[in-house]
Design goal:
The chain is α+β, with helices and mostly antiparallel strands. The protein has a single domain, classed as TT1751-like domain (TATA-Binding Protein, 2-Layer Sandwich), CATH 3.30.310. The protein has helices at 18-31, 42-50, 65-74, 104-109, 117-133; strands at residues 3-5, 9-14, 35-41, 57-63, 84-90, 97-102. Strands 1-2-6-5-4-3 form a six-stranded antiparallel β-sheet. Helix 1 (18-31) crosses helix 5.
Length: 134
């Protein structure tokens, strides 16, 4: 169960049900100073809006207030790139799940500001530790 790389994020497959994975993700985010500000239940939304079936899939908007404040203090409009998205969804096999996080270096890198790179590295490290501990 190694963390897998994406061009724009990091993900990890788990041998546990999605409900259990979501609980563990929330616990591990909290250990790194993140809270969940927003939550989108994609399965429920697609059912309600399109009457379409989809696997259990949640998008969690995670925020670390001190780091968010630092980023916003450096560039007010960086709020367009916040919060950090974390997804938790049911895997292809029964009883499995996948957790992925958007890479803050990629996300904040679109600003072109090198002075924000250390902050992006800090956030990336914290989110990578969340995945490692799952």
């Amino acid at each position: 169960m190694n963390a897998e790389g994406l061009g724009y994020g990091m993900k990890k497959s788990l041998e546990i049900p999605v409900e259990q994975a979501e609980g563990r993700v929330r616990e591990e985010l909290q250990k790194e100073g993140f809270g969940v500000l927003t939550e989108i239940d994609v399965k429920a939304t697609l059912k309600a809006k399109l009457n379409a079936e989809f696997r259990p899939y949640k998008i969690l908007g995670a925020c670390n207030p001190p780091l968010a404040h630092q980023a916003l203090s450096q560039e007010t409009d960086i709020g367009l790139l916040l919060p950090c998205n974390v997804i938790v969804y049911e895997g292809d096999r029964a009883g499995t799940s996948v957790v992925a996080v958007l890479d803050p270096k990629v996300q904040l890198g679109i600003t072109g500001r090198t002075d924000i790179e250390p902050l992006a590295e800090e956030v990336r490290g914290r989110l990578a530790r969340v995945l490692e501990r799952l």
